[in-house]
Amino acid sequence: xxxxxxxxxxxxxxxxxxxxxxxxxxxxxxxxxxxxxxxxxxxxxxxxxxxxxxxxxxxxxxxxxxxxxxxxxxxxxxxxxxxxxxxxxxxxxxxxxxxxxxxxxxxxxxxxxxxxxxxxxxxxxxxxxxxxxxxxxxxxxxxxxxxxxxxxxxxxxxxxxxxxxxxxxxxxxxxxxxxxxxxxxxxxxxxxxxxxxxxxxxxxxxxxxxxxxxxxxxxxxxxxxxxxxxxxxxxxxxxxxxxxxxxxxxxxxxxxxxxxxxxxxxxxxxxxxxxxxxxxxxxxxxxxxxxxxxxxxxxxxxxxxxxxxxxxxxxxxxxxxxxxxxxxxxxxxxxxxxxxxxxxxxxxxxxxxxxxxxxxxxxxxxxxxxxxxxxxxxxxxxxxxxxxxxxxxxxxxxxxxxxxxxxxxxxxxxxxxxxxxxxxxxxxxxxxxxxxxxxxxxxxxxxxxxxxxxxxxxxxxxxxxxxxxxxxxxxxxxxxxxxxxxxxxxxxxxxxxxxxxxxxxxxxxxxxxxxxxxxxxxxxxxxxxxxxx
Length: 533
Prior knowledge:
Layout lengths: L1 E6 L8 E6 L2 E7 L22 E3 L5 H4 L2 H6 L5 E5 H32 L10 H8 L2 E4 L5 E2 L4 E7 L7 E9 L2 E7 L22 E5 L13 H15 L3 E4 L5 H14 L11 E4 L1 H12 L7 H8 L10 E4 L2 H7 L7 E4 L9 H8 L6 E4 L8 H6 L4 E4 L2 E4 L3 E4 L9 H9 L7 E5 L3 H14 L4 E2 L6 E3 L4 E4 L11 H26 L5 H18 L2
Parallel strand pairs: 3-4, 4-5, 5-6, 10-11, 11-20, 12-15, 12-16, 13-14, 13-15, 16-19, 20-21
Antiparallel strand pairs: 1-2, 1-22, 2-3, 7-8, 8-9, 9-10, 17-18, 22-23
């Protein structure tokens, strides 16, 4: 019974943990790294084909984005998650695959012109479709048996539609341990979704600590803050540009804008338009519209029961096609533009920044966490100029930050969550925080809360049955290397993974009919003869 730390260790993105329990091999999350993580991630200790299940806390790409790559490398187990997370993954993984294919095509056009070898995308839409075919969804608060060794329960984490903390009961021989994976713990009193639910008991806890060293500003009226910024910007004749995560943050902002419109909090600009310019955000908004009373808070549920759509209002414009997106910046009327990505590191938002950052009448509003070293972080930190599409753009627009709108619990919220355990866990492992934050929050738990805590680096392994470390690593700084080399390594890794999957298929056929096994062996030899060169 062992736990290995793979991703989001002393870093904020790329969440992934490996758990062995009896004969069962699990991953908890399989996230994509974003924003320039500084440490290398350890390799999985087994081939992707050997993994039986992935337990998914929520649909954000830094927790789910490598699921298609896992499929491409031979994983054929089940991806177990909540109903709403399954619905969001349907759009988010397809969108991520589309981005991978488009980026590869753009790079390969340049490679062809330069006479260089082309490289494939990290994964394809076909890989995403394959992964989506493995989804197995469950409701909140229902304990169920995954295998004879493992039982699960999903508890609302209050971070995103469908987000969950996962309670895992592991049995190995006569030993049973309970480990809780917090997922991303939500901020209280957010619009639309419920507050995080507390869990009362666990032997071990793997806990996020994104804001483990600071508190959000309390008591702010986010609707009033947003209305003030819009009023001042439209009065100047400028646009309000809001980089926002397509899933979650965009829908929260629409909730605020519905209230601004209903209460006439912006004067003199009746009918001002709010554009949502992100195909993914548009699809996610439909999911929020159609789904799911099971996830809404009481205020939002009351609106829905009155027949009021909490994220719709006059003047809302949904932009899907690239032509619609381009037209937004050729319309001179002052407006609000909400676009992804939330940290400005990709997507249509970069085009809107190119057209608006240099205009002093405009405003750029940040309403979410900005990881280093993203463009969003540079703007929040006061950059005078930035590079966009090879062009230097002066920053003259007003840079605004709406504090306290984070989807993550702050330090106080994290402490409330861990204090809810009626018996102190044997160990709390701090993950999903910046380098110093993980260490400092672990130290705080140990010194002030008297809870054993640790901040492991990727590659560390803990024996859950014995309650001791099998391996503790130091962080390995990521080496800079060319994209072509990384892609080439990825292609070979895919080939190796195919071989590992073949081995698993062979082992699963033990005891089959001799005639069938002989034919299978002949097919393998024929393939080897073709490629043994």
